[in-house]
Design brief:
This protein has 10 helices and 21 strands. The protein has 466 residues and is of the alpha+beta class.
Length: 466
């Protein structure tokens, strides 16, 4: 071999090895292995609480969430989880790489199979060697008599079969087919699986978001970070909860208005099974709870805070919420309870920094307020007024860019399964000789075992040795 031929030989060797690797990569075994790997990799995302969208977008919030996770799982295990991305499995690079690898493998396998399926549909072999008809193999019948080519072809045609014939001397071969296009449905099912995995495994986790909003009645909350360009603002105009005489809930209804750049863009009464979709975001009512409207003022009467405090905690079996006093290191703990005559009472406790090593906050003042009442504390100098009880609604705000892929995959899957299960391909290969007829049936078991023999018998077939 000459020196000039060596590079060509090496290139051919490299190309051959690349083709072999590609054929291995797009094989069914590798695709199934990748799918199992995706399922196994996603298991920690189900067992371990995942960080939310806003936490992942805010470094400070992320660091705080990691500290809380390490306190729960321990520094060693919590640190390993953080390094592996277990707290946000579905947005890690390695999980996305698995999903993309599976998608490419499945697509390659589907593309490779498609021409063979198409050729088998368009150019099915009518003439088969006689060993193909050997009795004892699956779908083969015993030798038959009583069948002639033209009446048999006409009868099969009337039964809904497409009949193709070929003549070889004294032998006549027939191929009868029903639903011959149905094998293409398997390609639809493959495409559906790829769209499902790609949409749910990459597009939605990486480019979507899901956050929980707690919006008190009469107030506005942003979807995302405050001040973010193009951000949506959600205002809770009204929340109605009604029960019947048996204390069974009959209606949960929330009146929402959505704003963008200061202008309202959507308004709707949300029900439990009737969310609001606007600007690519879907708002689902998920839960509700109590809140209180309060006013805080300093010693000079200047307004420090006016609005709702969400009571999403529990203390002594009472709804609880904490509000930090602006400009101080103190806060006010609010606990709502039902007093005499079913009158709402607000247990108001001023809390300051701990003065000892226990870390327990010091109680600065404590008072019970009814609607419209106020209290002026001296340490810290702050006035607290209980305006009225209120409520808040818990919303799930979800932006799902992979939804279109998932819907398309669902349509393809339903179509593919409907065709595959409802209209399976049925084929009869028939070899007619002067002394006998041989038949091979291919299709679902009921067709091979029952339908095909009954059809042939109706067309005049009978066993040669009967």
């Amino acid at each position: 071999m000459t020196a000039s031929a060596l590079p060509l030989t090496r290139r051919r060797t490299v190309r051959r090895r690349v083709r072999q690797l590609w054929q291995t990569f797009i094989s069914v075994r590798v695709a199934n292995g990748l799918l199992l790997a995706i399922a196994g990799a996603g298991l920690p995302g189900i067992l371990v609480s995942q960080f939310g969208t806003l936490v992942l977008a805010d470094p400070a919030a992320y660091a705080l969430a990691v500290q809380r996770a390490e306190a729960r799982y321990g520094p060693l295990l919590g640190g390993i989880y953080e390094q592996l991305g277990v707290y946000h499995v579905f947005t890690t690079g390695w999980f996305s790489a698995l999903v993309l690898a599976f998608t490419v493998s499945l697509a390659g396998n589907t593309v490779q199979r498609a021409p063979r399926i198409w050729r088998d549909i368009r150019h099915s072999s009518v003439r088969r060697p006689m060993r193909f008809y050997s009795p004892g193999l699956p779908g083969r019948t015993d030798p038959l008599v009583g069948l002639e080519a033209e009446p048999l072809a006409a009868g099969l045609h009337r039964a809904g079969y497409r009949v193709t014939s070929s003549v070889d001397g004294e032998r006549i071969f027939l191929l009868a087919e029903r639903h011959r296009w149905s094998p293409l449905a398997s390609l639809l099912s493959h495409a559906a699986l790829g769209l499902f995995v790609l949409g749910m495994g990459v597009v939605t986790p990486r480019f979507g978001s899901e956050i929980i909003l707690k919006v008190p009645v009469g107030e506005v909350r942003p979807i995302g970070f405050p001040g973010q360009p193009g951000n949506l603002l959600v205002r809770n105009e009204e929340f109605v909860a009604r029960w019947d005489e048996h204390n069974i809930p009959v209606e949960y209804r929330t009146r929402l208005i959505v704003f963008r750049d200061g202008a309202p863009i959507a308004e709707k009464d949300l029900l439990v099974n009737d969310p609001l979709s606007v600007a690519g975001t879907t708002l689902h009512p998920n839960f509700f709870g109590p809140a209180v409207e309060v006013i805080l003022r300093d010693a000079t009467g200047q307004l420090l805070y006016e609005g709702a405090v969400i009571l999403d905690g529990r203390a002594d079996d009472m709804p609880e919420g904490l509000l930090r006093i602006p400009g101080t290191d103190a806060g006010v703990d609010f606990l709502l309870r039902k007093g005499e005559g079913d009158v709402a009472e607000l247990l108001t406790i001023g809390l300051g920094p701990s003065r000892d090593a226990s870390g327990t906050p010091d109680i600065l003042f404590q008072v019970i307020l009814r609607t419209g009442e106020g209290y002026l504390a001296t340490d810290p100098p702050v006035g607290v007024e209980f305006v009225r009880p209120s409520s808040y609604i818990g919303l799930i705000a979800k932006h799902d860019p992979g939804q279109g892929l998932i819907w398309l995959g669902g349509i393809l899957l339903v179509t593919g399964l409907t065709v595959s299960l409802g209209f399976p391909r049925r084929r009869l290969w028939i070899a007619i000789r002067p002394d006998e007829t041989r038949v091979v049936a291919s299709g679902p078991d009921p067709f091979v075992k029952d339908e095909a023999p009954a059809l042939l018998a109706a067309l005049g077939a009978r066993p040669r040795y009967g």
